[in-house]
Specification:
This protein has helices spanning 2-12, 19-30, 73-84, 101-104, 107-110, 120-132, 135-138, 204-215, 232-254, 259-265, 284-296; strands at 34-39, 42-46, 55-59, 64-67, 91-95, 115-119, 146-148, 151-156, 159-164, 176-179, 184-186, 221-223. By secondary structure, the chain is α/β, with parallel strands linked by helices. The chain has two domains: 1-31, no CATH class; 32-195 and 202-233, 4-Layer Sandwich (Metallo-beta-lactamase, Chain A). Strand 8 and strand 9 (159-164) form a beta hairpin. Helix 8 packs antiparallel against helix 9 (232-254) and helix 10 runs antiparallel to helix 11 (284-296). The longest helix has 23 residues, at 232-254. It is globular, with a radius of gyration of 20 Å.
């Protein structure tokens, strides 16, 4: 309907709008999620909503595994439609990389009969969120039926998915999913393409080690928690951002700098192209503050 209205405005000469505004409106009207094949049977779903997570899905001979399902039922419906454009097989497994709603809010729409998998910590944290949330919001969370402490392998013949916990990073219970046959990995929010991340109750120091471990694997495709599909090159740059920031904060901390001095004293000009989101505490200074607080706890 909005598209028809826009075309009508163009025809009948209603008040014109600046070209940049028109371009933005057109982009909003026709933006759609992208489904990108990234290996045999494996697809990256790149969300058209920055507030909703990307997903990854693996199609085997008899069923499908999905990594993360989006913010809510509307986003889950979009993801399910995209999956059904590829395969009509049943969705047997859902892996939630962590407890945040934008990664599991579409579970019940995408795979109502699927086995949900997460780390032990993510299941416990999800239970806490459900118990402390209003009923309507709590209904968007789903506790896992299968959990693990270190790693597990899902067999979806002829492929496998290696699900593992790399240690505290973005949260205290992140899961990564590596697809060895496709040389691809789903990173959840351990990697945001060209963006400063939000930092939960995790460990920035171990986060860097987790990224080093991922980079040591054979990789052709990297699915970030948000934004464009990536390669090892973009993952390396994100790792370098965290490492550079950590080193600067640690040096200032050891000199006795205050928190405010640290927030003002970091130099991240090399990463000026990174997105920053003050409303989510996802800025260079916010990341520096979190690192400072973690160093205080050592």
């Amino acid at each position: 309907m909005r598209a028809r209205r826009l075309r009508s405005m163009l025809r009948i000469g209603q008040p014109w709008m600046p070209v940049p505004v028109l371009i933005l409106i057109c982009a909003q009207l026709w933006a759609v999620p992208q489904v990108k094949p990234i290996g045999p049977g494996l697809y990256a779903y790149i969300s058209d909503n920055d507030s909703s997570a990307n997903s990854t899905f693996l199609v085997g001979n008899k069923g499908i595994l999905v990594v993360d399902t989006g913010f809510d039922s509307a986003e889950g419906t979009k993801l399910l439609r995209a999956i059904r454009g590829v395969s009509s097989l049943p969705i047997e497994f859902i892996v939630n990389t962590h407890y945040h709603r934008d990664h599991q809010g579409g579970n019940t729409v995408v795979g109502p009969a699927a086995v949900v998998i997460s780390t032990d910590w993510t299941r416990q944290r999800t239970l806490q969120v459900i118990q402390s949330s209003p009923a309507q919001e709590a209904s968007l969370y789903e506790t896992a039926e299968v959990t693990f402490a270190d790693k597990l392998t899902v067999h979806l013949d002829p492929y496998t998915a290696e699900v593992y916990f790399p240690g505290k990073a973005h949260t205290s219970g992140d899961a990564l999913v590596y697809f060895p046959s496709q040389r691809a990995i789903a990173m959840g929010d351990l990697f945001l393409n060209t963006s400063s991340p939000a930092m939960d109750a995790g460990s920035a120091e171990n986060w860097i080690h987790a990224l080093d471990e991922a980079l040591a694997r054979p990789l052709d495709a990297v699915v970030p928690g948000h934004f464009d599909l990536a390669t090892k090159k973009e993952l390396q740059r994100f790792r370098d951002y965290l490492n550079d920031l950590f080193a600067q904060v640690e040096a200032l901390f050891e000199k006795g700098a205050t928190l405010e001095e640290i927030r003002r004293g970091i130099h991240m000009e090399k990463y000026n192209d990174f997105r920053q989101y003050p409303q989510y505490h996802a800025t260079f200074a916010d990341n520096a503050e979190t690192i400072y607080q973690q160093l205080q706890q050592h």
